[in-house]
Amino acid sequence: DQQVKQNSPSLSVQEGRISILNCDYTNSMFDYFLWYKKYPAEGPTFLISISSIKDKNEDGRFTVFLNKSAKHLSLHIVPSQPGDSAVYFCAAKVGETSGSRLTFGEGTQLTVNP
Amino acid sequence: GAVVSQHPSWVICKSGTSVKIECRSLDFQATTMFWYRQFPKQSLMLMATSNEGSKATYEQGVEKDKFLINHASLTLSTLTVTSAHPEDSSFYICIGGNNEKLFFGSGTQLSVL
Question: What is the pLDDT of residues B53-81, one digit of tens each?
Fold first, then answer.
């Protein structure tokens, strides 16, 4: 049972434009969501997170939107840069503490073309 | 800064041999270590959760006698794939937590011939 899904395995955008990565979840117990970025041959690195008490969190070029009623979140990157090209994982957990497990989506390969 | 050092980054072994993957937490104490694996085109799936000094809790469908996890100290956790078979070929990654944050290892790509 895939509780976190990223339906787009890949996304290609032009430099300077907006990248929108989507994620859907089914478990209504999830209340904390995270996005990770992964370059080849490296481990994922934390990008941005959002608690279910919010519907938006912004950090520089990165903004995460949460729609609890639709069980959907999205990551917006604007403007996109070639260095943003990576695999992006959406993850969800119950509770914000590190003792709770992460459930990951399949990942979306973002390619930003110069 | 805090980081999890995972070794080896890739390993190729013959069927039937055992492979040990090591994760060391640097500059923090990992009270919890999560072990995940990722098959091609699938998401990272949790295999087991270990807390320092206690036995690991395995997810359904993960054989505890095949995937031995040791978390004897707050800075070291190991996963041993015993009698590896080609179907065990996967990307394995550890994630260490210290009650505040989570830190990812860099992953190990295991290929069993």
Answer: 888 999 999 999 999 999 888 899 999 99
Does B102 reach chain A within 8 Å, measured CB to CB?
yes
Mean pLDDT score of chain B = 90
- Using CA atoms, how far apart are residues B46 and B49, in angstroms rounded to an integer? 8
- Residue among B91, B112, B93, B89 nearest B102 (CA): B93
Inspect the interface and report whether the beta carbons of B102 and A99 lie closer than 8 Å: no
Digit-coded pLDDT (tens) for B14-51: 999 999 999 999 888 888 899 999 888 788 889 999 98
pLDDT of the residue at A42: 76
Q: Which of residues 44-83 of B touch A (CB under 8 A)?
A: 44-46, 49
Phi, psi (rounded to 5 degrees) for A60? 65, -125
- Mutation for B interface: A101, A103, A106, A109, most B CBs within 10 A: A101
pLDDT for position A98: 64
What φ, ψ does residue B75 adopt, rounded to 5°? -120, 0
| Yes or no, beta carbons of B43 and A45 under 8 Å apart | no
Write out A15-61 in H/E/C secondary structure: CCCCEEEEEEECCCCCCEEEEEEECCCCCCEEEEEEECCCCEEEECC
Strands (E), chain B: 3-7, 10-13, 19-26, 32-38, 45-51, 57-58, 67-73, 76-81, 90-97, 102-104, 108-112
